[in-house]
Design goal:
This protein has 249 residues and is α+β, with helices and mostly antiparallel strands. It has two domains: 2-53 and 219-247, no CATH class; 75-200, no CATH class. The protein is 29% helix and 30% strand.
Length: 249
């Protein structure tokens, strides 16, 4: 086999039966595409492993018996199902905008909950459908009857940037763009026991459409996406070799 540069921007590699003549600019594009497709496939595998870890953690959490909120340490709140006792503050509720459930637009509802010791929590009660007209807000009526509820603490790693008008407390419930517990506490005048949000478990009194934390994770779909990207990489490389190789006879 021999290889030597061509004056026409192509490399020429010859064997006894075949001649390989790739054009260098196309070759750079092909290499870049293969690297990109491979990286995307590896990223999908990483996402699969990440979601599988979340599912495993959820299974461990659901197997643990619930404990009273007052007995849990702040650092371990997300590791247990929690029992909270107190009452809702019906006039202090928030609607997290642009939440889609099974193809329908709606809101996640956050309600202020006052514990027996006088501190407050923000309880995410689930999803509710939006009205046909955006100017109309859905009814999220509550009463202040004492309750004993099961919740799971949830920590958000980051909040998305906000665009448009900042939420104000001139009308309740307040429509918000981000589940920022500090901002919500400020608007509602709450004394938060923790900055974590509490997610109501299915079947609890006052629960709306509660979406399971494991719903939509589906680690296996990322394996399919990864195989697609690796297939694109292999196909690109195959076509590059096929189109630049010809028989010397």
């Amino acid at each position: 086999m021999s290889g030597l540069p061509s004056m026409k921007g192509r490399w020429v590699i010859r064997t006894r039966h075949y001649e390989f003549t790739p054009e260098w600019r196309i070759t750079l594009i092909v290499i870049s595409a293969v690297v990109l497709f491979t990286s995307l496939g590896q990223w999908q595998l990483h996402r699969r492993a990440e979601k599988q870890r979340l599912l495993d953690a959820q299974e461990v959490l659901s197997a643990k018996p619930p404990i009273p909120f007052r007995r849990a340490e702040e650092s371990s709140l997300t590791e247990h199902t929690l029992i909270i006792e107190g009452r809702y503050l019906p006039t202090r509720q928030f609607l997290l905008d642009n939440r889609v459930h099974r193809g329908q637009v709606g809101y996640d509802v956050y309600s202020a909950f006052r514990l027996k010791d006088g501190r407050d929590l923000l309880v995410q009660r689930g999803w509710i459908a939006a009205k046909a007209r955006r100017t109309l807000l859905p009814s999220v009526n509550l009463d202040s009857t004492p309750r004993r509820l099961l919740v799971q603490a949830y920590r958000r790693d980051r909040l998305l940037p906000e665009f448009g008008q900042t939420a104000t407390a001139d009308r309740w419930p307040v429509r918000i763009q981000n589940p920022d517990t500090d901002r919500m506490a400020e608007l509602a005048g709450l004394n938060l026991a923790t900055r974590l949000e509490m997610r109501l478990l299915p079947g609890q009194l006052s629960a709306l459409v509660v979406v399971s934390p494991s719903e939509g994770l589906q680690p296996e779909k990322h394996l399919g996406y990864a195989l697609q990207w690796f297939t694109f990489a292999g196909l690109t490389l195959f076509l590059w070799l096929k189109l630049n190789t010809r028989s010397r006879h």
